Inverse folding.
């Protein structure tokens, strides 16, 4: 299934599911909070309303006893009128309280009994101003003991029972509220648990997918590195083949064509010496042939040196560089200073070829592009490194972070970088407009054997 959908699609679906669960959990938490708050407010609002109503009834019952007491203390027609007005006000207020309780209270079945008792008690009190106005104090006392006190006690007990029932209902509502809150919390925990499980699953798939990507990236990187190494080895092999071909061609030019032209030059000289007197025209032709042979011999030698200088194989790196600098000065007319220190004759052929070709390319660039008036070539060998530096005072160029020109149509600098990398060396190209160019090569070399005598320091200024 995963393969059919694709890992990216599975991850997208998983992330969407996790986000959806989190959103639903947040909505559910908000809904639970709102519902619980509404329930709590409703419970306490009903309790407060009922308790205020019952408190009003208890207060009125207490006021009724006080008003009747005041009447018995001062039994006059004026006090009777006052008591009647006070009882009418209490009856109206009680009527409003019972109507309010009928709307908000859940104990509607118990209110008619309490209301009837309270109305009966109030009816007895309402008759007091007319019936008790002209009786004696003993009869008034007996009336209070017989009628008012028991009925007032019964009404008060009924009101207390309603308050107790109201408190019990509040306790029951609080228990139901706690159960509802606990149930909502469990529901929310289940949703959060589902979200956590989905998150863990998506995280596991993501980690596995990232591990696979990392493995593939490492594999591709290894393949690229392998291909790069193979290309470098191929490039090195191509350079070796090129150098070998140049060496063979140079020897062929020097040994075969050069020798044949040299013999031709000798034979022309002999023919020129043997020709005498009237053969002046023949002598002129032989002179021109000899001059042409000399030019051809020099051209063959130049081509041979350009392809592969035999001095590099016969005498070593330092004399070959000296010869190259002299050729550069003679060809370009640019002053060149050559400094050589402790360069061994036992360097590997690959190192000698690399240094020679890099210096050759650097001098060629100085001649063709730099407009320099002076060039410095320095070659130094330490026990660990062979350092080469070619520096000119030409116009320079603007390079990128690797020191290569931004706009170039040639491959010379790229080629010398490739040659330096093949022998394990490092190449630094430093240039700026108006500051000339500096090419520094550093190649690791093996330490010379203890038996080898140290070479004297040699400095040649041309």
């Amino acid at each position: 299934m995963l393969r059919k959908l694709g890992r990216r699609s599975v991850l997208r679906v998983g992330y969407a599911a996790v986000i959806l669960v989190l959103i639903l959990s947040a909505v559910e938490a908000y809904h639970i909070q709102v519902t619980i708050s509404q329930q709590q407010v409703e419970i306490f609002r009903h309790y407060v309303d009922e308790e205020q109503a019952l408190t009003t009834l208890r207060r009125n019952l207490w006021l009724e006893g006080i008003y009747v007491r005041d009447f018995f203390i001062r039994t006059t027609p004026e006090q009777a009128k006052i008591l009647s007005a006070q009882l009418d006000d209490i009856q109206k207020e009680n009527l409003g309280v019972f109507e309010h309780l009928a709307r908000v209270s859940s104990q509607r079945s118990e209110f008619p009994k309490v209301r009837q008792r309270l109305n009966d008690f109030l009816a007895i009190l309402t008759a007091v101003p007319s019936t008790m106005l002209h009786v004696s104090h003993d009869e008034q006392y007996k009336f209070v003991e017989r009628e008012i006190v028991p009925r007032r006690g019964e009404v008060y007990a009924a009101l207390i029972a309603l308050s107790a029932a109201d408190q019990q209902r509040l306790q029951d509502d609080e228990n139901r509220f706690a159960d509802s809150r606990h149930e909502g919390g469990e529901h929310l925990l289940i949703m959060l648990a589902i979200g956590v499980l989905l998150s863990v699953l998506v995280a596991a798939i993501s980690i596995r997918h990232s591990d696979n990507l990392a493995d593939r990236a490492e594999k591709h990187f290894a393949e690229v590195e392998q291909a790069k190494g193979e290309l470098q080895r191929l490039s090195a092999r191509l350079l070796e083949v090129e150098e070998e071909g140049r060496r063979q061609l140079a020897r062929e030019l020097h040994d075969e064509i050069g020798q044949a032209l040299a013999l031709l030059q000798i034979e022309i000289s002999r023919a020129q010496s043997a020709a005498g007197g009237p053969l002046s025209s023949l002598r002129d032709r032989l002179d021109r042939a000899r001059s042409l042979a000399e030019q051809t011999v020099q051209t063959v030698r130049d081509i041979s040196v350009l392809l592969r200088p035999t001095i590099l194989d016969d005498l070593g790196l330092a004399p070959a560089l000296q010869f190259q600098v002299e050729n550069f000065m003679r060809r370009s007319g640019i002053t060149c200073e050559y400094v050589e220190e402790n360069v061994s004759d036992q360097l590997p052929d690959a190192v000698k070829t690399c240094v020679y070709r890099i210096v050759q390319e650097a001098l060629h660039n100085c001649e063709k592009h730099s407009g320099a008036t002076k060039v410095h070539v320095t070659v130094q060998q330490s026990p660990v490194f062979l350092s080469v530096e070619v520096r000119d005072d030409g116009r320079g160029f603007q390079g990128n972070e690797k020191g290569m020109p931004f706009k170039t149509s040639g491959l010379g600098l790229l080629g010398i970088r490739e040659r330096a990398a093949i022998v394990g060396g490092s190449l630094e190209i430093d240039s700026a407009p108006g500051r000339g160019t500096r090419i520094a090569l550093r190649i690791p070399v093996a330490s010379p054997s203890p038996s080898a005598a140290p070479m004297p320091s040699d400095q040649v200024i041309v």
